[in-house]
Specification:
The protein is of the alpha/beta class. The protein has 15 helices and 13 strands. It has two domains: 190 residues, Glycogen Phosphorylase B (Rossmann fold); 170 residues, Glycogen Phosphorylase B (Rossmann fold, 3-Layer(aba) Sandwich), CATH 3.40.50.2000. Helix 6 links the parallel strand 6 and strand 7. It is globular. It binds ligand GMT.
Amino acid sequence: MKIGITCYPTYGGSGVVATELGKALAKQGHEIHFISYALPFRLNNFVENIVFHEVELSSYPLFEFPLYSLALASKMVEVAEYEKLDLLHVHYAIPHASSAYLAKQMLKSRRNLKVITTLHGTDITLAGLEPSFLPLVKFSIEESDGVTAVSRFLKEKTLTNYNINKEIEVIPNFIDTEIYKPKQNGCFRKNLAAKGEKIMVHISNFRIVKRVSDTIRILEKIIKEVPAKLILVGDGPDRSECERLCRELHLCDHVKFLGKQDGLVEILNSADLFLIPSQSESFGLAALEAMACGIPVISSSVGGLPELIRHNETGFIAEIGDIERMAKYSIDLLTNEKKHKLFSENARKRAVENFDISIVLPQYINFYNRILNS
Ligand code: GMT
């Protein structure tokens, strides 16, 4: 197949899923064309069968606001036509699904370009609900030839929030469990914490929905019973507030802000627990990455997290903002070696048996074939 993929190329789960999907498809011999404003950050090596097409934006004095959606639609038409794409797979509805619709219409007389939209999260639960976007998101989803969502939760939210009557295929996030795996050697444990200290990790883009400050408040409770460090990986709008909170709570010696990092497997392999107390999380790719490395997860009960994490088996789930309970669960696992080992094995097993790329990739390929033959 010849597939065009559009995604946000920067830090973020939807871009990771789109890029890893493209790479896996290319490995199987499919021809992949990424169309975006920058090279996706996971596309940092040459990969056979992958081509990148940059959407360039002209700055004309009259255009007070960048016209990215329109430039993207034009680029989609150009790539679809000259590279003879069979389908366009766009990740994150806004504005990608709308640009794809426009491209499809522009090509209508010449080719039937199929458009598949994958819904990832805040495109549906937050940004898409804003009155200025809602009608467009609804329309673009309804007009896509195929729609996938990363969890049952997100599918239901889409159908109810947008009053849509359309088939939506649930295809979960995936992971290469040969890369994300438990490693005995090569972890940074001794660089991150003193001997005898436990390590908790949180990885995100530090947006308000991630409730990163909850991880600091959880740590405050944990260290009253267990010597521990909290490692915060990533960056975003809430980071300064989290740094301020650490100073206010006199926790600066217990919390390390690492900023954006590439060596996630090594960092995860240094950890004892992964914390994800989000206010909204349609799937929780970061939690899956931790599980694949055999790290139990303490999470909130929102969105698709309960579809990933098995309470009292691969980790623990508590109500949003229930810091007390999350700390209690953490202490339970950090002080019970046998239980921690069991949860760690369960987490890895769940990742391998349900979310490995070898299981999820065929789901996408089958879906593509179904849409192409419809
Ligand atoms: O929706 C977002 O907040 C952005 C998106 C991204 O690009 O990072 O994240 C979402 O997509 C990921 C990949 O499918 C999911 O694992 C995340 O749970 C989801 N984030 C939220 O729902 C907050």
